[in-house]
Amino acid sequence: MPNPYAAAGVDTAAGDLAVELMKSAVSATHNASVLGGVGGFAGLYDVSFLKDYSRPLLATSTDGVGTKVAIAQAIDKHDTIGQDLVGMVVDDIVVVGAKPLFMTDYIACGRVVPNRIADIVAGIARGCSATGTALVGGETAEHPGLLGPNDYDVAGAATGVVEADRQLGAHLVQDGDVVVAIESSGLHSNGYSLVRHILSGKGIGYTDQLPEFGAGVSVGEALLEPTRLYTAPLLDLLDARPGVVHSLSHVTGGGIAANLARVLPVGTWVEVDRSTWTPPTVFRVLADMAGTPVEDTEGTWNLGIGMFAVVDAASASAVLEDLRAAGLPAWTVGTVSTSARELDGFEQGAKGVDGGAVRLVGSYAG
Fold it and tell me: 284: which of 13, 63, 112, 133 lies 20 to 30 Å off by Cα?
């Protein structure tokens, strides 16, 4: 008898094959705390170790990667988008000083293509392994008629833990703290709707090549540069220098000033000095195509800064050395101040947070 579900466009056999193809990658992220294998109705994670905490706080985050998936679909390259998802979710958890424990993912697609799903999940698994996060479960759902056969979207959620007295945030920031910028790997996963609009307006395809991106590199490949993962080296820094880092900011949607303002207390302000870095080529090329100064994109793209660390001034040099030794280029961009001043032109708080005030000043280097 014909399968009525298959006739409706849902291929459960393809889904089962996709699970088989991803099992080894998912299992590689598991540690002794993960109970059960792949395919259960719920993932189980043993948190007996929380008994050793005085006051454990659970941290949770959920996110996707936005329209970056459209570029992956356009050039049929799906093995990096998973790392982007981990970066968007897990690197939000480390912002409060928490260690990620486990993550789940969700993939909605018009049609299950097993190898494609396996590539996406393999990327998620690699990101989870790099950040010490167990991938304990997920869901792949076919939505025929809602999504095209080659369309998909991804989302994820993660949970971590931090001892209450080691929680980072604006409450620790003091007058005179130094703001350290940590380099991004490129666009990460924000502002791709603008990117796609710019390229469409110029008639540039994702398989085209531009000399600015290097020989043999297509536009799509350049734009799919995976998100840099900050969790592991930042956790090492927090363990090695307790009390030195006061707050962290993940530069995602909203751009540079808004995200930094979220992790500063009310009554403080920072001027971020543009002359301390040069925005990477991808940002300059896109801004030139749009016919706009790169400064006009500061509220959309990270322009080369993936994370901020607000640190004790006396330890700023040591923090820079530690980050650079861990493979994270970093530099100082400003100093926190509580002195009275007019705040015209400053970004003050963001996303519902009554935070500090931030504006960018000067001209970019290079």
Answer: 63
Q: Once rounded to an integer, what is the mean pLDDT over residues 178-189?
A: 97
Backbone phi and psi for residue 30, each to the nearest 5 degrees, phi listed first: -80, 150
* Residue 30, token pair as written in the block: 């598991």
Cα separation of 366 and 364, whole Å?
6
Q: Is the dihedral of CA 252, 253, 258, 262 positive or negative?
A: negative
Residues 303, 307, 312, 316: is their CA dihedral positive or negative? negative
Q: Residue 226 gets which letter from DSSP?
A: P
Tell me the HSE value of 41 on the side-chain side, using a 13 A CA sphere.
Answer: 0
Q: Tokens 């097993």 — which residue?
A: 114
For the segment 88-136, what is each residue's pLDDT rounded down to a tens digit?
A: 999 999 999 999 999 999 999 999 998 999 999 999 999 999 999 999 9
Exposed, middle or buried: residue 106 (CB in 10 Å: 0-12, 13-18, 19+)? middle
Pairing of strands 99-109, 152-163: antiparallel
Residue carrying structure tokens 């016919």 = 291
Q: In what order do the strands lie in the sheet with 178-183?
A: 245-250, 305-311, 178-183, 330-335
Asked whether the whole model's pTM tops 0.85, one would answer yes
